[in-house]
């Protein structure tokens, strides 16, 4: 009897290490993708860069810094003769919605015509071209510089309401966002982020796993008891807490400010064949008019 009890205690626990075939399943790859980006947000091209670049952690993101191979000549050749693509999705996008006159009136307080283009430049206001300028604190030009930004207007659709996207560096996002909310008096949160918390304990993860019987495969189930299918999820972004509100609205003017970071991807194409690549990649949609 003692020998039998001793053998039971010495019996090895079932190994939780999955073989390579199991790890490469789509459901497991997605779970690993979500788990490994809890502390530092990944870009859509992270896996491609991680295999070829030295990764660094900056501004809450995990970015490719320098290539592991001698690819400088190849990059230079692509820029001069072909096409080189850069992933700039870590830049933060701030979206402004409201009446055009009200937007231009308040935006004029944080920029100056003495520095060049402004938000009301005709070529940029039509939505055909992207503009760039330096932002200052309200009515403080030439002092209290906030930093450079790029912007693009959504083309007019016949209504008074306009839509403006401002792209800022993640290191400057909080200061610029705070200044925009101050000049437009956007204090009421319009929408709240409902993503899952960033830190999840190991015990909580184990509670999700349901072991039906010894020797059977472990399957994850949702609250309704059905097999759960994980999806890739972006937990907030590198500059925002996942439970922080990401949209604000002004009760008096109706101006709405939304944080669209990591929702709109941004790529830069460099080289003489950039337009050819875009032409072959993007196809015009067929628009049916009644």
UniProtKB/TrEMBL annotation:
Q: Which residues form the Pop1 N-terminal domain?
A: 4-98
Q: Name one GO biological process term.
A: tRNA 5'-leader removal
One GO cellular-component annotation of the UniProt record comes to: nucleolar ribonuclease P complex
Domain of life per record: Eukaryota
Q: Which Pfam families does this one have?
A: POP1_N
Spell out the PANTHER family in the cross-references.
RIBONUCLEASES P/MRP PROTEIN SUBUNIT POP1, RIBONUCLEASES P_MRP PROTEIN SUBUNIT POP1
Q: What is this protein called?
A: POP1 protein
Task: List the gene name.
Answer: Pop1
